[in-house]
């Protein structure tokens, strides 16, 4: 009970129920609304910037990110702040900027939710998540299934059983690695396969920890 209470980071005023659904939130903003753990939110942002060719992973453990300079102003505000944090050489400065990013995200989602129903909005984005999984699971071929998984990854990551659902979706089937995968896995470019070709490993999403602690 104590652990669950500590996980809740939304200000109480966001839970004052308004009327209607707040549409137009991104998957990351929906994750904030649904109070997913901060490391999950950061992983979603990491994948977003990798898919947009705005960064690439140098090492995964510990996570080091090479930021494409200059940072594209067309990126979403939280993506730009995420890249600015990982452009810092100091772990201390990086951690501070990531904390600031989370605070900004929570405040912005709170402003956008003003006057709308928290409960109805959460139900709405869960329905989007379920539809995304349905499109993946109903795909006729491994290629289409992998393509759907790539396109809907942000929404499927809202699922608290994301890892298990991913494993179930690809069990016994080849995984066609997306074109941006080499920017996430530094060893991939040295493998015998290339992006877009079948792989044996299932997609994984370790958390982007800015350092120890």
Task: Describe the overall structure.
- The chain is mostly helical and 213 residues long.
- The protein is 48% helix and 7% strand.
- The strands form two sheets. Strands 1-2 form a two-stranded antiparallel sheet. A two-stranded antiparallel sheet has the order 3-4.
- α2 crosses α5.
- It is flat, with a radius of gyration of 18 Å.
- The chain starts with a helix and ends in a 14-residue tail after the last strand.
- By DSSP, the count of extended strands is 4
Give the strand order of the largest sheet, numbering strands 1, 2, ... along the chain.
1-2
* Major beta sheet summary: 2 strands, antiparallel
Strand content: 5-15%
Overall pLDDT metric: 85
The number of helical elements comes to 9
* SSE ordering: HHHEEHHHHHHEE
Q: Work out the radius of gyration.
A: 18 Å
Low-confidence stretches: 190-195, 200-213
Structural class: mainly alpha
State the helical fraction.
Answer: 40-55%
Q: Between the first and last Cα atoms, what is the distance in angstroms?
A: 23 Å
Give the overall shape, derived from the CA principal axes: flat
Task: Using brief descriptors, characterize the structure shown.
213 residues; mainly alpha; two-stranded antiparallel ribbon; two-stranded antiparallel sheet; 9 helices; 48% helix; flat; disordered C terminus
């Amino acid at each position: 009970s104590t652990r669950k209470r500590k996980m809740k980071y939304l200000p109480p005023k966001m839970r004052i129920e308004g009327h209607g659904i707040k549409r137009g939130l991104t998957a990351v903003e929906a994750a904030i609304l649904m109070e997913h753990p901060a490391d999950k939110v950061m992983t979603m942002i990491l994948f977003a910037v990798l898919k947009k060719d705005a960064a690439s992973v140098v090492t995964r453990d510990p996570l080091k990110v090479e930021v494409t300079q200059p940072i594209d102003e067309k990126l979403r505000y939280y993506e730009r702040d995420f890249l600015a944090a990982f452009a810092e050489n100091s772990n201390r400065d990086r951690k501070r900027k990531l904390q600031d990013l989370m605070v900004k995200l929570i405040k912005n989602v709170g402003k956008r939710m003003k006057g709308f129903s928290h409960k109805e909005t959460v139900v709405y984005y869960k329905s989007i998540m379920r539809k995304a999984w349905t499109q993946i699971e109903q795909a006729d071929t491994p290629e289409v299934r992998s393509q759907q998984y790539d396109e809907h990854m942000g929404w499927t990551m809202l699922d608290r059983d994301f890892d298990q659902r991913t494993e179930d979706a690809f069990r016994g089937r080849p995984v066609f690695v997306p074109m941006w995968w080499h920017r996430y896995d530094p060893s991939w470019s040295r493998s015998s396969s290339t992006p877009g070709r079948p792989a044996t490993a299932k997609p994984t999403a370790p958390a982007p920890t800015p350092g120890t602690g």
